[in-house]
Automatic annotation (TrEMBL):
Enzyme class at the top of the EC tree: transferase
Protein name, entry field: non-specific serine/threonine protein kinase
UniProt-listed Enzyme Commission number(s): 2.7.11.1
SUPFAM superfamilies: Protein kinase-like (PK-like) (SSF56112)
GO molecular function: ATP binding; protein serine/threonine kinase activity
Length: 173
């Protein structure tokens, strides 16, 4: 990992979040290294990289491969299934807080896998809203209630907002 922040709390949070999951649309953590300043996550192989390179024309990581509407639809449904699992399928609800094309990895058949759980928050399933000290996420994908409490409480619906923003980017390219 290039950016080492703080005492490794974000890194350990990611390991804890991913290790609690087992779903076709969530990355599988094969192992990790946490020795001093050396930190690494080992995922299953993702030969197609991130969704980002398939939807942004002219980006440095862009490929010349264009995804058809059927494939984009299947990717969108897969991501939604992964989010539904994080919100309802796990013993503890996992709020991702960073759903964006860069954090959606694609296997060889373009099956999407949600990755990068560094900003995730684990909370009890029975709790509908959570409290946070500071905003989490990427500008443009952060739900309004995450950075301004007057819009309402922070919940799993914050991920749904980010998902919607990402779908708009998938359609608009």
């Amino acid at each position: 990992m290039k950016e080492l922040k703080g005492n490794g709390e974000e890194f350990l949070n990611e390991v804890a979040s991913i290790s609690r999951t087992s779903h076709v649309n969530i990355v599988t953590l094969k192992g990790f290294c946490f020795e001093g300043s050396k930190r690494a996550l080992i995922y299953e192989l993702m030969p197609n990289g991130s969704l980002e390179k398939f939807i942004y024309k002219g980006s440095p990581s862009s490929s010349n491969y264009h995804l058809g509407w059927d494939t984009l639809y299947k990717i969108a449904i897969g991501i939604a299934r992964g989010l539904e699992y994080l919100h309802r399928g796990c013993n503890s609800r996992i709020l991702h807080f960073d759903i964006k094309p860069q954090n959606i990895l694609l296997v060889e058949n373009f099956c999407p896998k949600i990755s990068d759980f560094g900003l995730a928050k684990i909370c009890p399933r029975e709790k509908s809203t959570i409290s946070m000290v500071s905003a989490r996420g990427t500008t443009g994908y952060i739900a309004p209630e995450v950075f301004c409490r007057s819009f309402g409480g922070i919940s799993h619906k914050s991920n749904v907002y980010s998902y919607g923003m990402m779908i708009l980017e998938m359609v608009g390219g």
